[in-house]
Amino acid sequence: ALMMSLPALFNIGLLLFLVMFIYAIFGMSQFAYVKKESGIDDMFNFETFPNSMICLFQITTSGGWNYLLFPILNKEPDCDPKKVHPGSSVEGDCGNPSVGIF
């Protein structure tokens, strides 16, 4: 029975990886410069692709996803919308509440 279900498990795993890949790219574009606090730190952030995948794995397993959500939902006065990031055209370290829930 296990040998018969392996192809289906592979397909489901590949589909899960594809969905996580898309959300990792989306998270990097929306939340790469979110202020580091609570669950967002040097390892759990959306600055790089591997870190984005780690965050999404944490969210998928429901292991402390709320600590990642709180900084993403930040808006003024808890963050600085005028903060300049060298080497990027992005300004601010605020999250995006409407996209963060998505």
Would you write up a description of this structure?
This protein has 102 residues and is an all-alpha fold. It has one domain. Helix content is 53%, strand content 0%. The protein starts with a helix and ends with a helix.
What's the layout of helices and strands?
Blueprint: H1 2-31, H2 49-60, H3 65-72, H4 97-100
Helix pairs in contact: 1-2
Helix content: 40-55%
CA distance, first residue to last residue: 37 Å
Query: What low-confidence regions span 5 or more consecutive residues with pLDDT below 50?
Result: none
* Helix-strand topology string: HHHH
Average pLDDT figure: 85
Tell me the β content.
Answer: under 5%
Number of domains: 1
Specify the structural class.
mainly alpha
User: Strand tally, please?
Assistant: 0
Outline type: elongated
Organism: Sonora semiannulata
Keywords: Cell membrane, Disulfide bond, Ion channel, Ion transport, Membrane, Repeat, Sodium, Sodium channel, Sodium transport, Transmembrane, Transmembrane helix, Transport, Voltage-gated channel
InterPro entries: Ion_trans_dom (IPR005821), VGCC_Ca_Na (IPR043203)
Protein name: Sodium channel protein type 9 subunit alpha
